[in-house]
């Protein structure tokens, strides 16, 4: 059963130590509390939720007027800008190919922009506190993401098995240089039929999806100070650091160097780095 995301709820008091920055990554979800920076326009391939911690969130969707609220949702691949008077913000990403979008809570299906969801905001603040407490315990058990953040499992999407194979391939190796033609041959489809079926099943073009997954893989690197940005660019599958910087800025609205600089005190919870930079 899902938590009531839209009815009023008590906002818990911010605890001492609640400013701790944390990012919880799973293959299909991200929970982030940390610095926002000053992003330019960004466009991410996930359903994104921006949640105010200490000051309201300001959002401009596709170049429109700025709007203000304590929670905002942005649908996948929608260009937007975000600002906040406070230094830190909470951000949640849900990968759309992993969920049945028609069965999502209404809040997650709304048009991009601010929304009224004070009960959900209160839940996000409690989630942040729970992650901090959990991280301070030896051998603490890991939470179930959907249970903690949404109050219950989000319904999974049923995808054509042929497209599911390709999704797994990209998810498991986002740095792969595999072309759409290669993937079409892998699942025994013509090139045009594959592209059509992929977009129909996933809701995004093959190229957009692969670009997003490659950019998303950057999140696994952000606290690693042992390597240069050029190493990260090549390890993530970008041909050079210039293309890497341009692509990352298009997705996140920030330069890679600024993302790394703002992540120095970030604690990352999740799977180990998927790409072998140090082999």
Low-confidence stretches: 1-9, 272-279
What is the CATH homology-level superfamily of the largest domain?
A: Jelly Rolls
Going by helix content, strand content and strand pairing, the class is alpha+beta
Sequence of strands across the biggest β-sheet: 9-6-3-8-2-1-10
Helix content: 25-40%
| E-strand count | 10
Spatial shape: globular
Q: Distance between termini?
A: 45 Å
In CATH terms, what is the fold-level topology of the largest domain? Jelly Rolls
- The CATH level-2 architecture of the largest domain is identified as Sandwich
Text of the CATH class of the largest domain:
Mainly Beta
Strand content: 15-25%
- Count of alpha/pi helices: 10
Radius of gyration from the CA trace?
Answer: 19 Å
Global mean pLDDT: 87
SSE order, one letter for each helix or strand: EEEEEEEEHEHHHHHHHHHE
Tell me about the biggest sheet? 7 strands, mixed
Care to describe what's here?
The protein is of the alpha+beta class and 279 residues long. It has two domains: 22-150, Jelly Rolls (Sandwich); 161-269, Arc Repressor Mutant, subunit A, CATH 1.10.10.60. The chain has helices spanning 106-109, 118-135, 145-150, 161-172, 180-186, 191-202, 206-216, 229-235, 241-252, 256-261, and strands at residues 22-26, 29-35, 47-51, 57-61, 67-69, 71-74, 80-84, 88-94, 113-115, 267-269. The strands form two sheets. Strands 9-6-3-8-2-1-10 form a seven-stranded mixed beta sheet, with helices on one face. Strands 5-4-7 form a three-stranded antiparallel beta sheet, with no helix packed on it. Helix 5 (180-186) crosses helix 6 (191-202) and helix 8 (229-235) crosses helix 9 (241-252). The protein is globular, with a radius of gyration of 19 Å. Mean pLDDT is 87; it is low at 1-9 and 272-279.
